[in-house]
Design brief:
Layout (H helix, E strand, L loop, with lengths): L2 H14 L7 E5 L13 E7 L6 H15 L3 E7 L7 H8 L1 E2 L2
Parallel strand pairs: 2-3
Antiparallel strand pairs: 1-2, 1-4
């Protein structure tokens, strides 16, 4: 992952932490697999214990933050405990942790 992208993701993580608590942030999808191209979006997952009642407001806030950083970023809020599909587990296993 290039430094510019890492800096953007760290900024996103820092700004998002002002509005809600999350355990981890992962880059996943084509950028994590180094299969991205010019038209690829940047998939980012915010891992939480449980999705709160305020989910839609938090999602909207994330998109406001993203618009100021890089509108190719597609943020998702994912729960460790309420996802029975295995998607969150796959993101954690195969994604790149943003520190």
């Amino acid at each position: 992952m290039d430094k510019e992208l890492l800096d953007k993701l760290r900024l996103l993580k820092s700004e998002a932490s002002k509005y809600f608590d999350f355990q981890q942030v992962f880059l996943f999808g084509s950028y994590a697999k180094a299969e991205n191209n010019k038209s690829s979006d940047i998939d980012v997952a915010f891992i939480v214990d449980d999705i709160s009642d305020d989910f839609w407001n938090l999602s909207a806030k994330l998109f406001e933050i993203v618009d100021k950083i890089d509108n190719r970023i597609e943020p998702l809020i994912l729960s460790k405990f309420s996802d029975n599909s295995g998607f969150t587990e796959n993101v954690i296993k195969n994604g790149i942790l943003i520190n």
